[in-house]
User: Fold these one by one.
Assistant:
Number 1:
Amino acid sequence: MEQATIEKVWQIKGLLFKNEDYHLALDLEDSTHRVLMRYIIVHPDSVPYQKGMEIGYDQEDFVVYTHKEDAKQSLYSVA
């Protein structure tokens, strides 16, 4: 059985990118939008990271955490 995991993501303009796709987030950065490191909890039934040719999560589909410890507390309080 798959379990929920905490993933480090890069947040910009309502999108979330996995760590290995940091360069995609950087491509969207400009003087008013900066890339931020965040954490999310990904469940087995979460929306897919890649849909066809599109890569990235929509920020609206996840609770975004600033600190990994906050994500851990949330994950363990649900478990």
Number 2:
Amino acid sequence: MLVVTNTIRIKEGFGSKVAERFAGAKGVQTMPGFVRMEAWLGAGQEGEEELKICTVWENEEAFKNWTSSETFRESHRGAGDSKEYMLGASLNKYQMVVSHQA
């Protein structure tokens, strides 16, 4: 399993507004190899909030197919409208090595 986190730095007070963009299904859930997506909102550095978008994939190939798809491009259209409160983002990838469930 591959876990990808996109950490988005946002001006304080705008985190919920940015998180709303991820509430509606935008096509990622239809991609082969997609397992789930979660959005986590928390405090960042002073004056900032952090939104972590975490997606879980069966493998790296499934994630790459998503990022090169037309569905990916369509789901990211309009992201430039939030330049006034988006401060930056970083993408990280992890291999899942342990998982426990109830």
Number 3:
Amino acid sequence: MARVITALGAAGLVCGHSVACPPARARDCETAKIRVHRPKIECSELCNGVLILEGTGYLLPSGDVVGLRQPLPREAVTT
């Protein structure tokens, strides 16, 4: 599946918005528009090919996994 999405992105077929969504490798890639939302499996596919996994992070078209970018709770921070 990652190869198909990557091929679509390379061909310019993933995002057709007037203001293009950020590419999958951009730092803000998770801000792209949602193409498909699957609430039963808590997953959304963005138009740049990124799969958002609700509450756990996201999967890039290359197959790389990126964890959530959330600050740690205060209790978890040690000095």
